[in-house]
Design brief:
The protein is an alpha/beta fold. 28% of the residues lie in helices and 24% in strands. It has a single domain, classed as Rossmann fold (3-Layer(aba) Sandwich).
Length: 186
């Protein structure tokens, strides 16, 4: 059990948005991750803690998409108008909203400023995909000096192998790893 200070801890949920929630994932379905993330958000709000909801948006014309030369580029093409919209019912008054244009939630956003101005030193993290948006945000949060906690059952990926590799090999080096029921506010 990890005890948290509600005045210094923020929940950051990555990419719980329509276009990503329609993907096939493992080891947890997107429905399970959304349910776990929503429950965590309600619990954080009830404690008076900060909730940050992050979505990714590259623009209708992909003008805001990363441009680097890679072997497996992100598929381009038309997306539904609501692709970048956060899941229905997820956002509550008082939540902080951050739109990113990369995998990670720190680069090119005001996330760090929003957290530091609120006295946050610990981030509890979940979302989709474990080894993309979550991992990139985790690494950057660690590099920014935050204490990082990943809620394993609030994350999922495009395959169980990718999820497990991140959870078991990368995340223990830069974070604590828990399940949703292993947190409390002290």
């Amino acid at each position: 059990m990890i005890s948290l200070d509600c005045k210094k801890t923020a929940l950051v949920l990555i990419d719980l948005q329509n276009g990503i929630l329609s993907m096939d994932t493992a080891p947890y379905s997107t429905t399970q991750v959304l349910q776990t993330g929503s429950s965590l958000a309600a619990w954080f709000r009830a404690a008076g803690a900060v909730v940050v909801l992050v979505n990714v948006d590259f623009g209708a014309d992909f003008g805001d998409a990363p441009r680097g030369q890679v072997d497996a580029a992100m598929p381009r093409g038309e997306r539904p108008d609501d692709w970048a919209d956060l899941a229905e019912g997820l956002v509550e008054p008082g939540d902080l909203l951050v739109t990113k244009h990369q995998w990670g939630a720190f680069h090119g956003t005001d996330l760090d400023v929003k957290l530091r101005r609120r006295g946050i030193d610990t981030i509890v993290l979940g979302g989709i995909a474990t080894n993309f948006g979550v991992e990139s945000t985790l690494r950057s949060g660690w590099e920014h000096g935050y204490n990082m906690i990943v809620v394993e059952d609030a994350c999922t990926s495009v395959s169980e192998d990718l999820h497990q590799m991140a959870i078991n090999k990368v995340f223990p080096r830069i974070s604590r790893i828990v399940r949703a029921g292993e947190l409390n506010f002290g």
